[in-house]
Specification:
Largest sheet: 38 strands, antiparallel
Oligomer: single chain
Number of helices: 1
CATH superfamily of the largest domain: Lipopolysaccharide (LPS) transport protein A like domain
CATH topology of the largest domain: lipopolysaccharide transport protein A fold
CATH class of the largest domain: Mainly Beta
Distance between the termini: 160 Å
Number of domains: 4
Number of strands: 38
Helix content: under 10%
Radius of gyration: 44 Å
Amino acid sequence: MINKRLNNHIRGHRIISVMVLCLFGFCLMQAMQAPKKHARKRPHGDRVYLLHADELYYDMFGNNPDAQILKGKVSFLHQGSHLTCDSAYFYQASNSVKAFGHVHYRQGDTLSLTCDRAEYDGQMQMMRARKNVVLHHRRQTLRTDSLDFDRLYNMANFFDGGTLIDGKDKLVADWGEYHTETREAKFVYNVKLRSGKEVVTTDTLYYDVRKSKAHMVGPSKIVSGASVVKTEDGYYDTKTDRAQLYGRSTVIDKDKTLTGDTLYYVKDGESTGYGNVVYVDKKSKNSLTCNYLRYNEKTGNGFATRNPVAIDYSQKDTLWVHSDTMRINTFHINTDSVYRKVHAYPKVRAYRLDMQAICDSLVFNSQDSCMTMYKNPIVWNGNRQLLGEKILVFMNDSTVRFAHVIGQALSVEQMPDSVHFNQISSSEMKSYFEKGEIKQGESIGNVQTIYYMTDDKDSSLIGLNFLETDTMRMYMGPGRKMEKIWTNKFTSTMYPMTQIPPAKYKLNNFAWFEDLRPKDKNDIFVWRGKSKGSELKNIKRHEAPLQKLTDRL
């Protein structure tokens, strides 16, 4: 009876075992047939081989029953890579290794890695190195405490702070990746690149090791001594100290600031700016705007075009100058004798509240603070117009000190009634200023004048005085009021207002170009040149009485 029950029990147990085995086999077959998503391509011969260990044993009842426990000069080989350590757990079933103590991983002749401990997955070809990790690849060195190296994609990732050293370049970031095949790196969060004296800080940086070129993304700075570059999209070549800056970038050098949509910046070399370029010199209190600027920091030479505007705000009244092109040349740079020449051409228009001017070309020389206007220059000051073949204006702290008109000089002053004009014509004119106001005027060579006399009581016009001489001096008082006139030999005719001949109202070379005058700072962009036939013409006159000019009155 007992034997029969026992046999039935054994028979039932066998049936259950067979059913379990069948079910297990069915599940295994399904698993083998199911497609493996996200599985990597396994190369042939992917086994990890144990080359050497001083000790080898199993701990069936320990924490790692499936592992071979290895100690003493442990060495592995896998797919051409070599791994050594002090001790290790070797899992043959999963084709993986846990290495401890003086871990050293080598791949070919160009890559080596050392750390305190690591996990190597031969199936996935993934090396996870931890603590005191040092990755050497060619001449680059990457230091971190946590690094994953993917052999299949030749990618090293660190995520607990790391430092990449490439010659004189040193990169530090919280997180990053380095591709050993392309030798390109990406760094994110608290990124700092130190290259010689230059320091780059940014949120995200892409670094091309082969070219030593960094791409900065997000709010970024390049600091070099007193120079600071700000950008949100820039490329920086650490070998040449060249930067390509996009997205409205700024270069600050002490008191000078350069801003533009696109800047090609070369330290101690030629830099270029495109699109809404703004240059500001806070110390000199002047600025320049344009759409194209080229400037060489080493030579001090520059070139600006595409709607350039030079602005001087050193005085209460701001001066605005516009032309098609502007050029600056620096002489004896970095010496005590340094000076600059600024060329503006063509179609020059200038505006300031107390002075407006137009000409074909203009040259400013900082050596003598002289501004020279060429080819049909015209200068307006209040109700006074001055023109000639060439006009020289000497400045003193951005205020007019002396003006010299050479060739066919003509001064025209519009009277309050806007109908009559005081006029002076000569070969050349000189004007002396004090605190921005004219104090003395001098006309030389074939001088002709038309001057209206006024009643002191009501300022009404009482007559016209026509005068011819060779040299004449005028002295002005406050409010440009005429105090006295000096001349030696002259001819003069006085006409009452009711007896003025029609031909005497205007000199032969009279011209009034009020329509060409810039009305405000925005009007300097609208060029209105002289109409054909209104250019200066040489007018032959009879010789005026000669005289000897003396300093005595």
